[in-house]
From TrEMBL:
Molecular function via GO: ATP binding; tRNA(Ile)-lysidine synthase activity
GO BP annotations, alphabetical order: tRNA modification
Protein name: tRNA(Ile)-lysidine synthase
Gene name for this UniProt entry: tilS
Role description: Ligates lysine onto the cytidine present at position 34 of the AUA codon-specific tRNA(Ile) that contains the anticodon CAU, in an ATP-dependent manner. Cytidine is converted to lysidine, thus changing the amino acid specificity of the tRNA from methionine to isoleucine.
A GO cellular component entry from the record: cytoplasm
Record HAMAP family: tRNA_Ile_lys_synt
Catalytic reaction(s) noted: cytidine(34) in tRNA(Ile2) + L-lysine + ATP = lysidine(34) in tRNA(Ile2) + AMP + diphosphate + H(+)
Top-level EC class: ligase
Species: Lactiplantibacillus paraplantarum
Length: 448
């Protein structure tokens, strides 16, 4: 099979062999993408899609301008439509330049695709790119699905992102360029061994090739096997998940924990992803699974991250968004009372002081003008309330008597007047008063 025949097959597989279709060709002027463009131009006119060449001048290297100028001339001579974009220096970030450049590039490709009603964007990623990425991911660790590598085709913007050269090695692309006299630019930064990818390209891949020259094919083969396995796993998980959830999507603990142990984590992870639309790493998931499986008599909760928490109650687990948290008051912080307004003072308590009795249970209370301004604050050592008969009780003693667990005592708030006297230990006891100039109603709502 000649290189052109091989390429023809690949485009046929991507369903792009039609002059009725337009494709955007991402050309950097390096050997890979100049070969891609050349190959596309060799297709018979009856099958060749309409080509739109897209190039980004990143303004990162001295030769950037020469590359853009060359491509402009080439496209003119070849009667090819070219769309150029400049990523101007002022838009370059201080750090993360590669990722920012990539984002600019793909956004530009998406725009060109849209403007030309193109079916696909074609890039010139090849088999060596695959292997280098594979080795980098092996070294860095992460989700095993990442090892399946770059997809030959995937949905992108309003169409597809297609990589027709994935089965070509860099050596094959260079040979083709030499034979067909394809002019291209060599990126000088490719020599920079400070960059991980370049070290892998120059040192690791050649060394592994001496172990077996079929390295590229073997990695591609592993990637194919892995993709098949993961697809089978995903199918199985979908079936199992449907058996362990309620109609509202909550996880049924009894059903789920009787699944074979090796499926519990996978089912839990997929369930959580569907509920939260977020991905959690396996190291984070394992403790969650153990929490879910543990026998727990009462309702319990577990915080997943800043936005989600798990609630387990009556044999089901639900993932729920965390309600906006109320800032916890520091020991000497106070909140001024807003008369006739509900005020959320802790994550579970909303309080109010009203001049008219509210619709919820409330305590009538006498105030005098000198009580104002009233404040909510955490209780402090020395705080005490007035008792019937003229005596006092410290808040500390009150909480002990009411058997408030030590770890919850610090969260108790009190209502104090301008003199700092405690009028109400919220949720526990009111100070005793028989007279005043104003009657108000103290009310508390509990929310979970
Ligand atoms: N400046 C550019 N203008 C147009 N297309 C480009 C440009 N740079 C790269 N491309 C396209 O992207 C392909 C991959 O390029 P390269 O390997 O440099 O990018 P990468 O950042 O490693 O990969 P990716 O773009 O997938 O993240 C090239 O073969 C080419 O098709």
């Amino acid at each position: 099979m000649t290189p052109i025949q091989k390429f023809h097959r690949q485009l046929a597989a991507a369903k792009l062999l039609s002059p009725q279709q337009t494709v955007v060709v991402a050309v950097s002027t390096g050997v890979d993408s100049m070969v891609l463009l050349h190959l596309l131009q060799q297709l018979p006119m009856t099958e060749r899609p309409q080509l739109v060449v897209a190039h980004v001048n990143h303004h990162l290297r001295d030769q950037s301008q020469a590359e853009a100028d060359y491509l402009r001339r080439y496209c003119q001579q070849q009667h090819l439509k070219l769309v150029l974009a400049d990523w101007v220096t002022a838009e370059h970030p201080q750090s993360g330049i590669e990722a920012a450049g990539r984002q600019f590039r793909y956004q530009f490709f998406a725009n060109v695709m849209h403007d030309n009603q193109a079916a696909a964007v074609l890039t010139a990623h090849h088999a060596n790119d695959q292997v280098e990425t594979y080795i980098m991911k092996l070294a860095r660790g992460g989700d095993i699905a990442q090892l399946t590598g770059i997809a030959a085709s995937r949905p992108f913007a309003t169409g597809q992102l297609v990589r027709p050269l994935l089965t070509w090695s860099k050596a094959q692309l260079r040979d083709y360029a030499t034979e067909q006299h394809v002019v291209y630019f060599e990126d000088v930064t490719n020599q920079d061994v400070q960059l991980t990818r370049n070290r892998i390209r120059q040192r690791v891949v050649p060394e592994l090739m001496t172990v077996n020259p079929q390295l590229l094919n073997h990695v591609a083969d592993y990637q194919q096997q892995l993709a098949t396995l993961l697809a089978a796993k995903a199918q199985m998980v979908t079936v199992l998940l449907s058996q362990v959830i309620t109609s509202t999507g909550a996880l049924l603990v009894s059903q789920w924990s009787t699944l074979p142990s090796q499926w519990q984590l996978a089912v839990f992870s997929t369930w959580l992803e569907k509920q939260t639309h977020q991905l959690f790493t396996e190291s984070k998931l394992q403790p969650l699974v153990s929490w879910g499986q543990r026998q727990q008599p009462a309702a319990s909760r577990l915080t997943l991250n800043a936005t989600w928490e798990l609630h387990r109650n009556a044999g089901i687990i639900e993932a729920l968004p965390i309600k906006k948290r109320v800032k916890k008051l520091m020991p000497h912080e106070k909140i001024m009372v807003d008369l006739n307004q509900w005020q959320k003072i802790t994550t579970t308590q909303t309080v109010g002081i009203f001049t008219q009795a509210p619709n919820v249970t409330s305590q009538p209370f006498w105030l005098t003008t000198t009580d104002w301004p009233l404040m909510w604050r955490p209780w402090q050592a020395g705080d005490r309330i007035a008792l019937k008969g003229g005596g006092h009780q410290t808040v500390r003693r009150l909480l002990i008597n009411q058997k408030v667990p030590v770890e919850l005592r610090g969260q108790v708030l009190v209502l104090v007047n301008a003199q700092g006297n405690v009028l109400w230990v919220v949720g526990h006891k009111f100070s005793y008063r028989t007279a005043g100039t104003q009657t108000v109603f103290l009310a508390l709502k509990h929310e979970s």
